């Protein structure tokens, strides 16, 4: 018994010692000596691994003694394996850049670099993955500086959007691999058409302000440059499933071959997302896929990307009237069972990038996007005349209106090409990029009556309106960065953009549309940046952007009174720094608008509300963001923006139904707040890692008061709000899979009632006494869900 007891004691001591070994070290660039952040470090065959931190250090704890293969990989560098004997002192791993050409140049022409004098931030796929449990991409970006997000259905799935510095989606330029994504006519981006796209994104660069020249719609508040998945050297597979409140589900399967024959890769993803929505009946049924094939030579890369999204959502566009905010926040105005939006969008990209000698790189891409779909509506007691139909006579009675069901269709093609050439001088002083693109949009807009209670002289699928629009968008730009003296850089960027837009046919209000407009825009940018050599970069720049009106400005305004183009003058100045355990950014901006287009209440000749130019308006502010690692367990981060957003003068028009004949009354305002432009926006994040592989994060978001229109009326306002989210992530590395990840996200932890979006309108009605009138203001809101959750399990092979 004594021998057995002693054996057991010694065994326990040995096991205790066995578990105390730690493998630590650092990952270094073999050429520059710089630390590499985010490198993957794995002890093969053990299921244990780590990622290098902000100092390039890694730590793998509780490793039994023995001999192991340590594998280290990092994008753009050669993967290495080295044999180590545990226990071991700290190891220093030197990674050499890959001899194969990388994909970074695909997006570099439309991106800011570390020396570019503008305000930007890069969001990595690791950051996106932490929150990617089914909500749309705008919701995943809600914690980034100056961003405000919203969701029609209230749960972040379906129709969602974001504003940056108060600028909405129509003023934010978005590209995918340098290829324009914004709709050519409305300038909007409809993320619902790209469900689960975040699962195929490698990184996103958000430039606030005008930023650098890019392809597609004008950057009039910010730009988002998205790069899809890049080369992975080893085969992989992943199955990700999540579920949550409102019967929300996300299923994703993706896999890749890794590098075949040291040259070829194939990556694929298939996704399905469903949700009942927070708002009553506001369901979403979303499907998507992503397929990519690539050839990687020493000096040339060819890629083909094909991705598609198919969506059906029940409409919740009407919003919630103010009277129901207190007691019926989930109410939906629509009751017809098939009041749905249905759309599919297919994207095809063929991309080439090549290296020519030591000085030249080239990039070119051809693209084609095919979109088609409709939204279906039940309309009660609509006039026959609204559809170009004659009244129906039955039994001697003339019937001039009936209930109908209609579909409004979009069927469009968008195609073209983009290119760039990059030259770097032998001495490294000059960095030049010549780029541009030519794209065409060809879109059909038409409406059908698919049912009528009293049909009259009409057949199913008869089109009551039908029009076509063709838009050509061409641009060319030249960017130059010159190192004036050591670490001082001069930057210049000249873009010329030309637009030809033609439209013809019958509009949905039965007016004849026949028009043609052309625009020539010159958009210069200039700036300076200085690197101190201590991890800091100071910068200042001035940039100009011009923007043409959107489709509704042409179709709703009388053709003889098309609004003028908008112009933006943008000043950016600031500092960004990365030092040891902390990083920070601080910047000032001024965005001065000439002829900004806003809704004023003015109506056209058929009663539709139109946008008008206001001569002068501006946005100015200070943005601060940073992060500090207090210890291996604790990291704090956050951002805050203070801004002033003003219109110098504008005239509001209010409908007057109290007059003997309908008229509009005008009111002039000066120095008022721009709608949907909060003066304070901020977020804070606390990350806590109590043990290996477990991360607990508290995420907070604050958005100040926002006005629903430009009158700065306190009765037409979205109240300030603060939300708190809790995120838990735990990773296991069993021997039979690479990783087993468990994620839980509790949104709106304190059950805050808030509304980040809405709209308003006012009108006069007869008062109680004869000859008097009363002003009625109707506010509509898009409420967000109270406390809710999403939980997921990812299995990585």
Automatic annotation (TrEMBL):
Tree of life domain: Bacteria
Domain TonB-dependent receptor plug: 114-221
UniProt keyword list: Cell outer membrane, Ion transport, Iron, Iron transport, Membrane, Receptor, Signal, TonB box, Transmembrane, Transmembrane beta strand, Transport
InterPro entries assigned: Beta-barrel_TonB, Beta-barrel_TonB_sf, CarboxyPept-like_regulatory, Plug_dom, Plug_dom_sf, TonB-dep_rcpt-like
Residues that span the membrane, as ranges: none
Domain TonB-dependent receptor-like beta-barrel: 293-749
Signal peptide: 1-19
Membrane topology recorded in Swiss-Prot or TrEMBL: Multi-pass membrane protein
Protein's UniProt keywords contain Transport: yes
Name of the protein this chain belongs to: TonB-dependent receptor
PROSITE patterns xref list: TONB_DEPENDENT_REC_3 (PS52016)
Cellular compartments annotated: Cell outer membrane
Keyword flag S-adenosyl-L-methionine: no
One Pfam family linked to the record: CarbopepD_reg_2
Protein family according to the UniProt entry: Belongs to the TonB-dependent receptor family.
């Amino acid at each position: 018994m004594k021998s057995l007891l002693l054996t057991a004691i010694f065994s326990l001591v040995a096991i205790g010692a066995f578990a105390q070994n730690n493998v630590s070290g650092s990952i270094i660039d073999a050429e520059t000596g710089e630390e590499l952040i985010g490198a993957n470090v794995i002890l093969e065959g053990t299921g244990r691994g780590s990622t290098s931190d902000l100092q390039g250090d890694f730590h793998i704890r509780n490793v039994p003694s023995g001999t192991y293969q340590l594998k280290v990989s990092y994008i753009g560098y050669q993967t290495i394996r080295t044999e180590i004997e545990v226990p071991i002192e700290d190891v220093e791993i030197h990674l050499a850049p890959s001899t194969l050409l990388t994909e970074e140049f695909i997006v570099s022409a439309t991106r800011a670099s570390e020396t570019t004098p503008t305000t930007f931030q890069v969001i990595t796929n690791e950051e996106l993955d932490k929150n990617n449990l089914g909500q749309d991409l705008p919701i995943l970006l809600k914690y980034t500086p100056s961003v405000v997000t919203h969701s029609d259905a209230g749960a972040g799935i379906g129709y969602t959007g974001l504003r940056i510095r108060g600028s909405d989606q129509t003023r934010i330029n978005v590209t995918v691999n340098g290829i324009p994504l914004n709709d050519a006519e409305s300038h909007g981006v409809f993320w619902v058409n790209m469900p689960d796209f975040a699962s195929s994104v490698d990184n996103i660069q958000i430039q606030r302000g005008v930023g650098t020249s890019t392809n597609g719609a004008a950057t009039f508040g910010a730009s988002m440059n998205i790069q899809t998945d890049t080369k992975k050297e080893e085969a992989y597979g992943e199955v990700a499933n999540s579920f949550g409140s409102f019967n929300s589900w996300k299923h994703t399967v993706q896999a890749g071959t890794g590098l075949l024959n040291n040259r070829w890769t194939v990556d694929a993803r298939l996704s399905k997302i469903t949700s009942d929505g927070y708002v009553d009946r506001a369901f979403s049924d979303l499907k998507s896929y992503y397929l990519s094939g690539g050839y990687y030579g020493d000096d040339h890369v060819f890629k083909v990307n094909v991705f598609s999204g198919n969506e059906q959502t029940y409409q919740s566009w009407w919003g919630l009237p103010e009277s129901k905010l207190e007691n019926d926040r989930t109410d939906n105005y629509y009751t017809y069972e098939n009041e749905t939006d249905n759309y599919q969008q297919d994207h095809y990209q063929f991309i080439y990038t090549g290296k020519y000698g030591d000085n030249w790189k080239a990039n070119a891409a051809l693209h084609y996007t095919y979109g088609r779909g409709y939204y279906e509506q039940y309309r009660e007691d609509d006039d026959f005349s609204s559809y170009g139909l004659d009244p129906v006579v039955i039994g001697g009675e003339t019937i001039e209106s009936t209930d109908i069901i209609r579909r409004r269709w979009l069927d469009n093609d968008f195609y073209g090409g983009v290119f760039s050439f990059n030259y770097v001088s032998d001495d490294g002083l000059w960095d030049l990029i010549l780029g541009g693109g030519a794209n065409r949009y060809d879109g059909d807009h038409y409406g059908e009556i698919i049912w009528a209670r009293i049909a009259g002289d009409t057949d199913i699928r008869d089109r009551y309106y039908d029009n076509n629009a063709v838009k050509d968008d061409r641009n060319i730009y030249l960017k130059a960065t010159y190192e004036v003296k050591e670490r001082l850089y001069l930057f210049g960027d000249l873009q010329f953009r030309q637009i030809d837009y033609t439209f013809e046919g019958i509009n949905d209000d039965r007016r004849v549309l026949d028009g043609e407009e052309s625009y020539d825009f010159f958009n210069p940018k200039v700036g300076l940046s200085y690197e101190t050599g201590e991890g800091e970069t100071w910068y200042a720049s001035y940039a100009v952007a011009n923007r043409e009106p959107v489709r509704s400005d042409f179709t709703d305004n009388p053709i003889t009174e098309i609004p003028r183009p908008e112009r933006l003058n943008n000043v950016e100045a600031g500092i960004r720094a990365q030092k040891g355990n902390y990083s920070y950014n601080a910047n000032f901006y001024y965005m001065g608008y000439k002829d900004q287009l806003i809704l004023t209440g003015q109506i056209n000749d058929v009663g539709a509300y139109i946008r008008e130019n206001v001569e002068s308006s501006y946005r100015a502010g200070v943005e601060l963001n940073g992060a500090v690692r207090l210890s291996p367990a604790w990291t704090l981060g956050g951002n805050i923006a203070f801004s002033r957003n003003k219109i110098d003068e504008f005239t509001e028009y209010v409908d007057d139904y109290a007059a003997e004949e309908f008229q509009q009354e005008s009111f002039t305002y000066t120095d008022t707040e721009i709608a949907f432009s909060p003066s304070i926006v901020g977020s804070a994040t606390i990350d806590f890692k109590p043990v290996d592989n477990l991360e607990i994060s508290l995420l907070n978001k604050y958005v100040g008061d926002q006005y629903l229109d430009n009158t700065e009326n306190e009765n037409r306002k979205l109240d300030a709000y603060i939300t708190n989210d809790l995120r838990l992530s735990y990773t296991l590395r069993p021997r039979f899979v690479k990783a087993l990840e468990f994620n839980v996200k509790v949104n709106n932890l304190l059950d805050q009632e808030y509304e980040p979006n809405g709209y308003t309108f006012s009108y006069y009605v007869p008062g109680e006494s004869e000859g008097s009138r009363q002003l009625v203001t109707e506010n509509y809101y898009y409420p967000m869900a109270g406390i809710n959750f999403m939980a997921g399990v990812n299995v990585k092979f």
